[in-house]
Amino acid sequence: MAVNRRRGEVEAVLDGRARRLCLTLGALAELEDAFALEDIASLAQRFGNGRLSARDLTRIIGAGLRGGGEAVSDDEVAAMTIEGGAAGAARVAAELLTAAFGEAGEDAGRPR
Known about the structure:
The chain has 112 residues and is of the alpha+beta class. 50% of the residues lie in helices and 13% in strands. It has one domain (2-101). The chain has five helices and three strands; from the N terminus they run E-E-E-H-H-H-H-H.
């Protein structure tokens, strides 16, 4: 997995193909809606506990793919194979969150 934190981008292998993911402001707004949260601070706090469900990972990765320019639904993301399996999906989500929230979100989404 390649990470360009300066640009807020993560490259990950999904379904055997390298893809660019990015949590743009639009993608973050999408996540706020999906998790029924009021603001970005609440979103960061929600992910900061390090406990994410498979549905959470699907939503984060889906939002990142859409932010990176792909037209993909969460159902399509749920059916994708991710390099490294569930642990790989958690790493992708953690890197996306770190890229979006910076050093303050360093532990956001990391499995404990």
